[in-house]
Amino acid sequence: MSAREMLEELETKYLSPYAALSQDTQGRDRPEPLCDMRPEYQRDRDRILHCKSFRRLKHKTQVFLAPEGDHYRTRLTHTLEVSQIARTIAKTLRLNESLTEAIALGHDLGHTPFGHSGEYVLNQICEDGFVHAVQSVRVVEVLEKDGQGLNLTKEVRDGILNHRTSGRPSTLEGCIVRLSDKIAYINHDIDDAIRARIFTEADLPREYTEVLGFSVRDRLNNMIHDVIAQSMDKPAILMSPDVEKAMKGLRIWMFENVYSGSVAKSEEKKAQQLIETLYRYYIDRADELPDEYQRLMSERGEKKSRVVCDYIAGMSDSYAIDRFEELFVPKAWKA
User: Fold this and answer.
1) What fold does the segment set 37-116+129-265 form as a domain?
2) CA-based angle 183:19:21, to the nearest 5?
3) Cα gap 114→63, rounded to integer Å
4) Per-residue pLDDT tens for 177-197?
5) Domain residues of the chain, as ranges?
6) pLDDT tier at 331, thresholds 50, 70, 90
7) CA–CA distance from 114 to each of 82, 107, 235, 321 (Å)?
């Protein structure tokens, strides 16, 4: 018996009857020989962890654009925090931790530079629109490995696609990531906003903190415990009504006080203008795109607007700024 088969047997004996078992995966679009050591969802986790799009997340904005300080979250640290919360919940509920981790690590691979402000402007100017969850799936199906994609299992791609509030994941593991994403960003964005002196802990609405807790640590602990308590031995991932109401209320409060119009967003218009300028430039000069993007048009027949959107969405903040400066900022002349 191979190491993979032993691990799959352990899953069948230990995991909840509601867990997605690795041996029962719906598989990949392109069939591959099974690994002798790793079950299928673990292989997907490893592929995501080693891909280029994952590494670029360290230079993409979470909320604070180019903050002066080493401790503000980036898209990568957000992803890791989502993964840790999701794994804690999955492990305690005896669900598939590898599937949960793969979905969590891949859920934001398609996110734009400059956070949701970048997503907003691409959605406005790209003729087919832009949604980062859809783009994350496109990254793993098409864009990675020079157009080959990562060939992930259907369950991982489903969880990535459906991680937004409006999503309906087909597995409980996907449902865990969907909820963990909100738990993570609400709490770490509060932490970053307090660090940036946008508000203090005492400014948070008491009607929510009395339910969730009076510190980031307490809120994380209470929300995670609540999900586990409400979901144990059930075919759903749930929150108690009071905790869910408080979380949603705090999320709305954060939109009103941080995500829209705060000092943290003061540079967003410039970032959006930069992205729109790059988009217009490459729409007119698609022959200047890197070779792998030109092949998407010549070999796969992809629309130019889609491929330009792919290129810009894949940029890190710093690379987008560098491209803009290279194309549009005059340089000092040297004899």
Assistant:
1) Hypothetical protein af1432 (1.10.3210)
2) 125
3) 8
4) 999 999 999 999 999 999 989
5) 37-116+129-265, 268-328
6) confident
7) 19, 17, 37, 10
